[in-house]
Amino acid sequence: MSIIGRYAIAAALGWPTLAAVSLLPLSACSVVDVQKDRGSVNLGAKWALLPFVDYSDSTQAGGRLEDTLSSLLRTRLRVDITKYPVAAEPENSVDLDERQRYQRALSWAKKEGFTYGIGGSVNEWRYRSGADGEAAVGFTLHVVDLESGKTVWTATGARSGWGRETASGTAQRLLRDMITQLAGK
């Protein structure tokens, strides 16, 4: 429902209801499930950014999410993170098997002595149809202890934005919520 629609309903029901109706989108626009116990994740260790598997219908959503996550980890949590190297392939060749790309990046991170790798998947990155055209994003994050190969922290989330909000802005807000949980704050 659009913001105008919410206000029209509130006006019809009475202005005291306006406050309650206007607060609904603040609580109903996102959902995040985060592993509560993050174990012994050390934010001061060497971190490797691993590729995101892209299940969305949007071109290069995984790459966009990788860049945003890398920036937020550096600026908000002061994490020393290095992005995986891009495979040296001919210009017209595309790495169609994202799992192979992930495995190559994981091997690189282990070989280079990184402590943790962070990656995940993009499940949704789009604008919903309709008058508002709300941005909608959904993705997972997981932190892997590279020595043991075990996932030590994971989170999944989805968020929709306001009618004029960008998908990247919506994703950035969701990522901030998720990595705040990683920091234990």
Physical arrangement of strands within the biggest beta sheet: 1-6-5-4-2-3
Number of strands: 6
Instruction: Give the integer mean of the pLDDT values.
Output: 81
| Number of continuous helical runs | 5
Q: Give a quick account of the main beta sheet: strands, pairing sense, barrel closure.
A: 6 strands, mixed
- Helix-strand topology string: HHEEHEHEEEH
Radius of gyration: 19 Å
Q: What proportion of the residues form beta strands (DSSP E)?
A: 25-35%
Indicate the structural class.
alpha/beta
The backbone outline, from C-alpha atoms, is: globular
Distance between the first and last residues' Cα: 33 Å
Poorly predicted regions: 15-28
Proportion of residues in helical segments:
25-40%
Keywords:
single chain, 185 residues, alpha/beta, 39% helix, globular
How does the SSE layout of this entry go?
Blueprint: H1 3-13, H2 15-28, E1 30-34, E2 46-54, H3 61-77, E3 80-83, H4 98-111, E4 116-127, E5 135-145, E6 151-160, H5 167-182
Parallel strand pairs: 2-3, 2-4
Antiparallel strand pairs: 1-6, 4-5, 5-6
A few lines on this structure:
Helix content is 39%, strand content 28%. It has helices at 3-13, 15-28, 61-77, 98-111, 167-182, and strands at residues 30-34, 46-54, 80-83, 116-127, 135-145, 151-160.
Structure description:
It is built from 5 helices and 6 strands; from the N terminus they run H-H-E-E-H-E-H-E-E-E-H. It has helices spanning 3-13, 15-28, 61-77, 98-111, 167-182, and strands at 30-34, 46-54, 80-83, 116-127, 135-145, 151-160. The protein has a 6-stranded mixed sheet, with helices on both faces. Helix 3 packs across helix 5. The longest helix is centred in the middle third of the chain and has 17 residues, at 61-77. It is globular. Residues 15-28 have low confidence and may be disordered.
